[in-house]
Amino acid sequence: MNIGSAAERSGLPPKTIRYYEEIGLIPAAGRTEGGYRDYDETDVQILRFLRGARGLGFSVSECRELLSLYRDRDRASADVKAIALQRIGDIERKILELQSMRKTLKTLAERCHGDDRPDCPILEDLAAATPTD
Amino acid sequence: MNIGSAAERSGLPPKTIRYYEEIGLIPAAGRTEGGYRDYDETDVQILRFLRGARGLGFSVSECRELLSLYRDRDRASADVKAIALQRIGDIERKILELQSMRKTLKTLAERCHGDDRPDCPILEDLAAATPTD
DNA sequence: CTTGACCTTCCAGTCGCTGGAATCCCTATC
DNA sequence: GATAGGGATTCCAGCGACTGGAAGGTCAAG
After folding, report:
1. CB of A2 under 7 A from strand D?
2. Which residues of chain A are within 8 Å of residue B93 when distances are taken between CB atoms?
3. Separation in Å: C30 C1' and B11 CA
4. For burial by CB atoms within 10 Å, which of B3, B52, B79, B103 has the most?
5. How far apart are the first and last CA of chain A?
6. What residues does A37 pair with on adjacent strands?
């Protein structure tokens, strides 16, 4: 099947599939006589795997690790779990950061009357910011 | 004061300050005879403002808007508030997305025994992913 | 035989910096 | 006055993970 069908069946855009090939995340696809990339079900499976992993926020290099574990029949599930737990930690840190931003913004937005007058605690607060690092 | 002091007093790295100048986020700084950029307290104030806004996750183009509102004495606070509310919306969407990822990953990680055996629900689940879009 | 949808490669751009190289300025010490 | 260092300057390249677009090749239908 050509790259368009593989894209449709995997949920990844053709451009992304070519990009993954270029960076060596997936092996170079076979070619038809006319020079078109040719994919089979196994390839699509790998592409879907990547789409799922990327969708869970794993970086491309984490995907590389996950993929090599996926292909390794002698893998230890502990290695996979470690990557997943790491990712959960990243996500939780990010959530905390976003929640803190939201809290600050909400407080400021609540205090801003939001009409046509110019005085605004949001701007005032930003202007008063001190370098805390 | 030179860029190093402005950096210290604003909390932004010198490279970032030059970058902001380059992209026109801040006006070009004055220069000393020797060609060094020269900053005063007002400049540092603006840099701090930017650091605060970026720290709350506003994009550079949002910062541009916020800065122009900040400088506009005839602004309507409603315009500022609208940007802030928009940003809160972005943050909340992002939090929901991350929470969903975390939930999926947690479920998978819990079901993975994480020892030296190869069978692993994390990999199995990724491999079974279907294009849902 | 032509049309149009697909494919190919390659180059550039996105966002917000960050690193590094080569060179210049300023101050302090010998 | 020479020199050493710690700044500053510019410019170019790279990060991550694509995405857009141009110029051209291929394929199936009419």
Report:
1. no
2. none
3. 37
4. B52
5. 55
6. A31
Give percent of chain A above pLDDT 90. 93
Instruction: Output helix, strand, coil percentages for chain A, rounded to the nearest 5.
Output: 65, 5, 30
Domains of chain A: 1-57 (1.10.1660.10), 87-133 (no CATH)
Size of interface A-B (CB pairs under 8 A): 181
A33 touches chain B (CB under 8 A): no
The 3 state secondary structure assigned to chain B is: CCHHHHHHHHCCCHHHHHHHHHCCCCCCCEECCCCCEECCHHHHHHHHHHHHHHHCCCCHHHHHHHHHHHHCCCCCHHHHHHHHHHHHHHHHHHHHHHHHHHHHHHHHHHHCCCCCCCCCHHHHHHHCCCCCC
Q: Which of A102, A107, A116 has the most B C-beta neighbours within 10 Å, making it the best mutation to test the interface with B?
A: A102
| Cβ < 7 Å from strand D, A residues 19-48 | 19, 32-36
> Exposed, middle or buried, B46 (CB in 10 Å: 0-12/13-18/19+)?
buried
- Yes or no: say if A123 and B66 are a contact pair by the CB < 8 Å rule: yes
Q: What's the confidence (pLDDT) of residue B128?
A: 84
Q: Assign A128 a pLDDT band (cuts: 50, 70, 90).
A: confident
Task: Read off the pLDDT of residues B43-81 as tens digits, 9 standing for 90 and up.
Answer: 999 999 999 999 999 999 999 999 999 999 999 999 999
- Give the closest residue to D6 (Cα–C1′): B4
DSSP state of A119: -
Closest CA relative to residue B91, chosen from A100, A22, A80: A100
Q: Do the chains contact at A75 and B8, CB–CB below 8 Å?
A: no
- Please report the pLDDT score of residue A133 as a whole number: 61
